[in-house]
Design a protein that fits this description.
- With 108 residues, this protein is mostly helical.
- Strand 1 and strand 2 form a beta hairpin.
- Strands 1-2 form a two-stranded antiparallel sheet.
- The longest helix is centred in the middle third of the chain and has 27 residues.
Length: 108
């Protein structure tokens, strides 16, 4: 019984000392996201074409690209709604492009 209690105490002390390292957030590296377009649509297969396909930087870049598309969709949607006609036309095109990709692009 004493041995079991000692092992539990040892395991608890080890797990507590490891928690701060795991809980600490490491800043994520930002990758340059590039893509090609056709008819005001982002070609999803071309997203992050500046990285080797299948590599870790490529996969992380595509995840960040999805976040970027969502962010830009919200930004241009907000701009479009707050700008009066006919001046909001330039924002509508950008909103449509990024909101489409925010919905339809899947990084993996």
């Amino acid at each position: 019984m004493l041995r079991r209690t000692l092992l539990l105490a040892l395991a608890a002390s080890l797990s507590i000392s490891v928690l701060p390292v795991v809980a600490g957030k490491v800043p994520e590296k930002r990758y340059k996201v590039k893509w090609q377009e056709r008819n005001n649509r982002i070609l999803h297969r071309s997203v992050c074409h500046n990285h080797d396909a299948g590599s870790i930087p490529y996969r992380r870049c595509r995840v960040q690209a999805k976040q970027l598309f969502v962010q830009k969709c919200r930004h241009f949607e907000n701009k479009y709604e707050k700008t009066q006609r006919p001046y909001n036309k330039k924002y509508r095109k950008r909103r449509d492009k990024f909101c489409y990709s925010a919905d339809a692009f899947f990084p993996i």
